[in-house]
Amino acid sequence: MPWKETRVLDERMKFVVAFLEGESSLSEVCRRFGVSRNTGRKWIYRYREYGPEGFYDRSRAPLRHPNATDSDVVSLLIRAKLQHPTWGPRKLAPWLKQRHPKAELPAPSTTGDILRRHGIVRPRKRVRRTAPWTQPFAECAAPNETWCIDFKGWFRTQDGIRCDPLTISDAHSRQLLCCEGMRSQNGNAVRTIMKRVFREYGLPATIRSDNGTPFASTALGGLSRLSIWWIKLGIVPERMHATLKAEAIDPPKVTIHAQQKAFDRFRKEYNEERPHESHDQNPPASIYKPSERSYPSRIRKIEYGSETIVRRVRTNGEIKWKEELIYLSEALVGEPVGLVPVNNRHWMVCFGQWTQSEQVPIFATRLGLALLPSTL
Question: Is the overall model pTM greater than 0.70, yes or no?
C-alpha cells in the first residue's frame, strides 16, 4: 500500500529503521512499505548522507540554469529598485539601459520575479477608480497645446502645517512644470504661482482642470476669477482631471520647507529621469519645449465685434438689460460680457473674443442661454 501523503516523513523514517535493523532484506522491506527498490535505496542513501534532514523532498530545479541572470545584473536591478522603490520593471529597464548600455537586462517579467525573490517588491492595493471622462477634450499633438492643473489632496507636515500640493503639467510630454506645496487652495495664491510658471514656460492654448475651486465655480458658465484671467490671456479653460504621494509625500516631511525640497527633487527626477511609456520610455524633458507664446506684461482688454451687444458686469454680479437687472456672476464683476442673438427670444451670453462671421468661439466661454427681450 503506498505511503499516505500526510505521513510521508514518518513512513520514510520507519522504512529506514526497518531496513537497518536487518530483520528483513531490502526487497521484503520495500514490499511491506509499497515502494520500489530504487526508491528504497534513495532514502537509505539520503539518511546515511544527511541524517533525518535527508527525508525532506528537494527541489527538482537544476543546480545551474543556462538562462540564469548574471549576478552583476541582479545587483544592478536590486540597487535600482532600492533607489526608485515605486518604479516597476518597465521603468527600471530603460533607466538602467541608459546608464549601463552594455548590461544584458532580462525581460520585465523576469525582473519582477528577481525583485520578488529578494523581497523588495511592495504589493499594490487595488484602487477603485472613477469612471473616465466621456466628453471630448482638446487634442494634444504637441507641447503646450494643453496643460493640466490640479491639487493633489492636502495633508499636514510633521510640524502640523497644512500643505496643498499644486501640480501643473504639460498633457503631451507629461513634463511637470510645477509642484508647489501651498498653505491653502486660495485663488490669488494660485495666480501668483501661475504667473511664475507662465514667465518661465510661456502660455498654453488650453488649461484642463477639475470642477473644484479655485479653478471653477458654481456660477454661470462655471467661471471663477482664475479661469476669467485665463480667458483674458487667450487660454481656453477645460474641465476634468499616485506617483506624487508615493515618492514625495509618504511619509510627510518635518516642515513645509523640507516638503518643498522633496517636491523639487521629485519634479526633477520625474522630468529628467523617469521613463514614460507613451514616449517609448523616454523622460518628459526629452519631449517638452517652452511655449512660443510668452506671458504678456499687460493683459489685453476683452473686445467684441460690432454685431455683439456688450454689457459690463456690475459690482453685484448683475448686468442691466431693458431697465432690468439680470444676475450673472460675481466672478465677472467689472468685466465686459457679450450678448449674441440666437433667435427672436434667446440670447447667448459669452465672455471672450468671437468671430462674428461664423459665431464660433475662439477664446470664449458660453455662459448659457438667457431669456432676454429680443429688442433693445
Answer: no
